[in-house]
Design a protein that fits this description.
36% of the residues lie in helices and 21% in strands. It is an alpha/beta fold. The protein has 2 domains: 3-121, Rossmann fold; 126-263, Cytidine Deaminase, domain 2 (3-Layer(aba) Sandwich). The strands form 3 sheets. A 6-stranded mixed β-sheet has the order 6-13-11-9-7-8, sandwiched between helices.
């Protein structure tokens, strides 16, 4: 069995994977957030150098983990490996994140690396089905979950985001490039005349999304944002959502009276 490489971004997920796979080689991109001390740092323009270093370290599989911003690329700095991807990569920069990720993954696969999902390296991170924190769901909450699922399924072809907020059947916001925290801040600023109290945040993967590199995730910060937005239910896709810092997440939800529900379908 070869060695795992963790391509690490910001947040607690890379550290959780390193704890589950202590022999893993950790690589990060220059200028990108990374809260786990990396074994090596590479410019995004130097993917060829990254591939060579991983092969030298005995890695034959990679796991992308943590938050990563879209890079600002300087074509003048492309190494030979990056030049192979340049035409597809530059075209994908004008499209959604999924298109960009597909090009990057194709480059790693062409070099012989298997792409490993975070939940494959650490299965205990996956959200279970049903209520696993907070009080039981009301009938109205089940209706709002169905409404949120319908909204996200409809949004999926547009490659916008993985989350929306629904309250009494009304959509108060959808996630876009700014992310879930921004969505919750926006909902918190919604005039009270437009609110009915309660409401839920739904997170689920987009249809066709590559869950090896971009699975939805929730953590204690999600609960804090929900409290500010006066939301009472956090619904996620069971088996398709990562629970970051699980003990703290469940404790925060119980303390705030927020229900976390793993939805099927």
């Amino acid at each position: 069995m070869g060695r795992l490489a963790i391509i690490a971004g910001g947040g607690v997920l890379p550290a959780a994977l390193k704890a589950a796979q202590p022999d893993a080689f950790v690589a990060a991109f220059d200028g990108a957030p990374c809260d786990l001390p990396p074994d090596a740092i590479f410019a995004f323009e130097h993917l060829g150098a990254l591939w060579a270093a991983l092969q030298e370290a005995g890695c034959d599989k990679v796991c992308f983990a943590g938050a990563m911003r879209r890079p600002s690329l300087d074509p003048a700095r492309f190494d030979a490996g990056m030049m192979q991807l340049a035409p597809q990569l530059m075209a994908a920069m004008g499209q959604g994140d999924d298109a960009l990720l597909r090009v990057v993954l194709s480059g790693f696969a062409a070099q012989g690396f298997a792409i490993v999902a975070a939940h494959e390296a650490a299965p205990e991170l996956l959200a279970p089905a049903g209520v696993f924190a907070g009080p039981k769901l009301s009938e109205g909450a089940h209706d709002d979950i169905a409404r949120a699922q319908s909204i996200l399924h409809t949004m999926a072809p547009l490659d916008l985001g993985q989350a929306c907020v629904v309250e009494n059947g009304l959509c108060l916001g959808i996630e876009t490039l700014q992310g879930t925290d921004f969505l919750l801040q926006s909902v918190a600023q919604t005039p009270s005349a437009l609110r009915h109290g309660g409401g839920l945040l739904m997170k689920m993967p987009k249809t066709g999304q590559d869950l090896r590199v971009d699975m939805p995730a929730i953590g204690p910060q999600t609960i804090a944002g929900m409290v500010q937005a006066n939301l009472r239910v956090l619904a996620v896709a069971a088996g398709q959502t990562l629970l970051l810092d699980r003990p703290a997440l469940l404790r925060a939800a119980d303390d705030a009276g927020v229900t976390i529900f793993g939805a099927l379908g």
